[in-house]
Design a protein that fits this description.
The chain is mainly alpha-helical and 21 residues long. 81% of the residues lie in helices and 0% in strands. The radius of gyration is 9 Å and the shape is rod-shaped.
Length: 21
Amino acid sequence: DSYEGVMQKVMTRLYSKKTGE
């Protein structure tokens, strides 16, 4: 993955955790 790809995964994971998905 590119740097942006990694960051996208991290942000998605944090967002999912925050929303309780």
